[in-house]
Amino acid sequence: MMMQAQLLPYRLDFKLQNTAPIATAMEKTAPRTCMGLPEGVTLQHLSVKYRTVEALQDVSLTVPPGRLVGIFGPNGAGKSTLIKAMLGLIPARGQVLYNKDGNVRPLIDQLDQVAYVPQRSQIDWTYPATVWDVVLMGRTRRTGFFRRFSASSKRTALVALERVGMAELHDRPIGQLSGGQQQRVFLARAIAQEASIFCLDEPFTGIDQKTQDTIFQILRELADAGNVVMVVNHDLGESIQHFDDILLLNRSVVAYGDRTQVLTQENLYQTYGGRVLVAA
pLDDT at position 125, please? Predict the structure, then answer.
């Protein structure tokens, strides 16, 4: 388990110690009834404050299943903060609810449904773990701690590796991989979790075009399968056309909805503070 602690600073294999007070706060503010709440992940007045700085201000929206959602905004807009606040990784005000098949509960109580891929810069790539080790970590919650991985879990991990085209490098130390290969491995780990909510933070940074195309194809398949898929991105180029819905964020929500309706010059100006051209 030490490998997980050093390799994955924001792992979701179990609740971190600092998530307990966050969960308590959210439970206290959760409504007693959630009738009419749409399916998917609903954020209600989510806010984050770092000392005197409002990093995220009163974000309320619903991310439905079956849609590939891109989160865009300038540096310091709160994109990564939004994901971390959703998952209880940092203190936040407000609440995050997950409605799956009419069963509504705080998301903090359903982290087994979440696969989180952090930014590559947050991972210690010098730790002596192989590709296979990392992908099997995605099976820890289902297998249980201090227990052997079952044959079924190993098959699931292998299928995930094959899906991202990394099975032949299963015994390669992760530190010897290229940036694109490393990103594929962590996507395989997310797939192996068999989650219903996928949150990826800047997965396209420092990767080659082939890997980007592979990741987008898999994200599309995950969304089409009825999962919630959220991706923090910064590229306003042609890749933006892969997303169904766009969230424009600059500490608060500027606009959110169908890509073709959100990407207007007015919304982009409010988000980035200047004239921005996109391949919408």
Answer: 86
Structural domain that includes position 220: 2-272
Q: For 4-24, b where at least 16 C-beta lie within 10 A, e where not — what string? A: beebbebbbbeebeebeebbe
Give residue 276's pLDDT: 64
CB 254 within 8 A of CB 261: no
Residue 15 domain-assigned (yes or no): yes
Instruction: Output the pLDDT for position 118.
Output: 94
Low-confidence ranges of the chain (pLDDT < 70): 1-35, 142-147, 275-280
Q: Is 277 a member of any domain?
A: no
* Domains contained in the chain, number: 1
Integer angstrom CA distances of residue 209 from 123, 163, 165, 214, 280: 22, 17, 14, 9, 19
In a domain, 196, yes or no: yes
Query: CB count, 10 Å around CB of 2?
Result: 7
